[in-house]
């Protein structure tokens, strides 16, 4: 059982929902990323998704695209992420860390080398946005051999047949994309989310975590009524962008946003 499975088992025993923040590594400056990670944990993060900067993040809206641009100005690469997680692990051996990104940087390093370095750094899971489970036959087993979870996305437009395939390959948790479109787009409809999660529960025992459109405590609580976890990205990355010229203030900004969501989720009745 890796850290992701352990954390969700603990949350289930407590009747609580997971809070999973996303930030882009190296944004706005790589010197601050580890401090941001610790700040997120202090504010109530259960799992951290750490974005791998990429020049063409096609699933992401302008907020996270610009975060990638800010990080890439500092030439942040996958190897730097491994160093960040190793530093984070010096004082936090419990919080699961998931790398979220695209396949190209992984292929550049090589699948085996990537998995070896990720495991050695203390990473727990990998979500490769542009690698569907049908194409994961090579990377999936390599990750599994090293105790790394392969995490996949399910969209509102995913057919039941394809959702079953995704669930069969998935590990750790299932990332349900609450909105059609890119990150940071449109308005969240909690009733629609509930309608789509219901059939997924018949396909998998994986925790169902919902991302895209979570902006504040109210939206987190609405989703938390029907999901096992809430994933928040753009709302946090926007605060980073607003304070990019004064990065020393960002940790407190992140704690304020995430802390409100933590309180809202913990105020819900136990599951």
Please describe what this structure looks like:
The chain is of the alpha/beta class and 271 residues long. The protein is 46% helix and 14% strand. It is built from twelve helices and nine strands. It has helices at 3-14, 33-42, 62-72, 78-89, 103-109, 111-121, 139-145, 160-169, 190-201, 217-224, 234-242, 250-266; strands spanning 18-24, 48-51, 97-101, 125-128, 149-150, 152-154, 174-177, 208-211, 229-232. The chain has a nine-stranded parallel beta sheet. Strand 4, helix 7 and strand 5 (149-150) form a beta-alpha-beta unit. Helix 5 crosses helix 6 (111-121) and helix 11 runs antiparallel to helix 12 (250-266). It is globular, with a radius of gyration of 17 Å. The protein starts with a helix and ends in a 5-residue tail after the last helix. The model is unreliable at 181-185 (pLDDT under 50).
SSE arrangement:
Layout: H1 3-14, E1 18-24, H2 33-42, E2 48-51, H3 62-72, H4 78-89, E3 97-101, H5 103-109, H6 111-121, E4 125-128, H7 139-145, E5 149-150, E6 152-154, H8 160-169, E7 174-177, H9 190-201, E8 208-211, H10 217-224, E9 229-232, H11 234-242, H12 250-266
Parallel strand pairs: 1-2, 1-9, 2-3, 3-4, 4-5, 6-7, 7-8, 8-9
